[in-house]
Amino acid sequence: MNRLCMYLLALVVGLAAVSIRAEDAGQLTAENMKVALHTATPQENGFIERVLDRVQRGTMPLDLVKSTFQWARKKPRKQFYYFKQGLILRAAEQGIHIQ
Known about the structure:
- The chain has five helices and no strands.
- By secondary structure, the protein is mostly helical.
- The protein has a domain at 28-93.
- Helix 4 (62-73) runs antiparallel to helix 5 (79-93).
- The longest helix has 25 residues, at 2-26.
- The termini are far apart.
């Protein structure tokens, strides 16, 4: 019985840790994005800031930005390039113009 309790406790603690990490990963901040996408210039940083500003104003869907970000950061190189180009194309399909 004691082993079963220890196993259940470890399982609950493990699930809680996974839940907390998932919440942290869901936080889309400019700094997190810049690090994950390996931005290198003020222009790249500015693009991310403008995109997040549009999300806050409600002129760009958060799920579009998040899904494009998650896709781009898995690329082996040039993550920012993939993010920018992917977001521009996907947004255009929804009638959203990004400069």
